[in-house]
Amino acid sequence: MAPAATQSREESRARGRSRVDTTRAASGPLWRQYLRLLGPGLVTGASDDDPSGIATYAQAGAKFGFGLLWSALVTLPLMAAVQEMCDRTALTTGKGLGELVVRRFHRAGRIVVTVLLVALIVANALNIAADLLAVGAGMHLLHAGPTGLWAFLGGLGVTAAVMAGSFEHLAKAFKLLCLALVGYVGVLLISRPDWLSVVSHTFVPHLEVSSAYLGLLVAVLGTTISPYLFFWQSAHRLEEMRDEPGSNGRAVPLRERTDDMARKKRRSSRIDVFSGMALSNVVMFAIIVATAQTLGRHGQHDIGGAAQAASALKPVAGSFAQLLFALGFIGSGMLAIPVLAGSGAAGMAGLLRRRWGFSRSLRRAPVFYGLVAIGTAGGTLLSLLHVNPIHLLVFVALINGLAAAPFLVVVLLIANDRSIMGGRVNGRAANTLGWLTAALMGAAAVSLIFTGGG
Q1: What predicted TM-score, i.e. pTM, was given to this entire model?
Q2: Which CATH architecture fits 48-450?
Q3: Among 53, 44, 79, 72, which residue's Cα sits nearest to residue 436?
Q4: Exposure pattern of 49-81 as b/e (b: 16+ CB <10 Å)?
Q5: Are 68 and 302 in contact, with CB atoms under 8 Å apart?
Q6: Please, are residues 139 and 330 in contact by the beta-carbon 8 Å criterion?
Q7: Which of 82-86, 171-175, 240-244, 374-378 has the highest mean pLDDT?
Q8: Residues contacting residue 311 through CB under 8 Å, at least 6 positions apart
Q9: pLDDT tens figures, 164-184
């Protein structure tokens, strides 16, 4: 390589280091430092508990009591390992998963991923419609007006916010909406369960051999380890990196930072990811326990959605429990909608080698925003057609169940490629958990087909 080219590269790296080194150091009490570093991982974990997920967990608790509690413990390390991989690819390369697919795979592989991403965008639009209907139903429960009106207004508001708002404001709104999930811990405490039985069912799996149990287990796995979360974790981390002080809108990868700054960034990002996954599974745990203790014990075994679960809680656990439950899925629904739309849009735009991201203007990333609009506006229109949200979610579960394992294989191949990741390829633990998750999701997809979608 010519000396001039080598010098140019070194100067570029030095500029990258100097930009990132201008980031102000964390200060203040430890709890404030901790809250400050929470971001993409927290939002990813919270968005996993959208109204469709809440309905699944509520159904698990109502139908099988504490019988599926062990799944909250088992899925935690699997979720954490997968999301840490997605996060690390973004930190290491400064690129999204869609862009890395272009780099890692030849034409045939890219075609397969393109087909999967199209299916994911369709599934996300259907999921958005179901979540909007749940948000509308939640507002109706609060006596704020008809379901359809609030579903439409919610979709319209989210679409306008993501098209016009800056990433800085969106990121703050995302973090605030995460607080809505704290209500489920309140519902758990109000339900006052038998904690000895809860602990027993958490650490010792109580399996049942039935199609209903298997179907709900597959549904829990599908809503906990969903493909859109892989793309969102990577995309949101890159958005955060672009928004760092002195970055000039560029996601500066770890290799262009000083060793100390790269180490701090990697550590803080891991804490963020693991905290987000822990929050997600704590909420899942709380919903299963609360509904098992209330609805399950009172014979209300069939829950058709998050709003129905909230309504059913009122005569059993009181109006305060209903209020907390309703506020939880309203907040989580408003959080999940832009995440669902943005995840598929970021993946597809990256695959098409187009600019993407909420940190960029509509003029600079028209393809990305067009794909986002397909998700949010399409979901809003679907919510007005009076389609049964349960039918939508069954179809979404089928698509996600079939797509999860192939997407996981794509992530694993990227995360193990030294030409992309350098020395930050997967370690033994990440690979063990990653391939175990891929095998589990593949088995779940086969089970989903044979159980007719659960």
Answers
A1: 0.86
A2: Up-down Bundle (1.20)
A3: 79
A4: bbbbbbbbbbbbbbbbbbbbbbbbeebbbbbbb
A5: no
A6: yes
A7: 82-86
A8: 141, 322
A9: 766 777 778 888 888 888 888
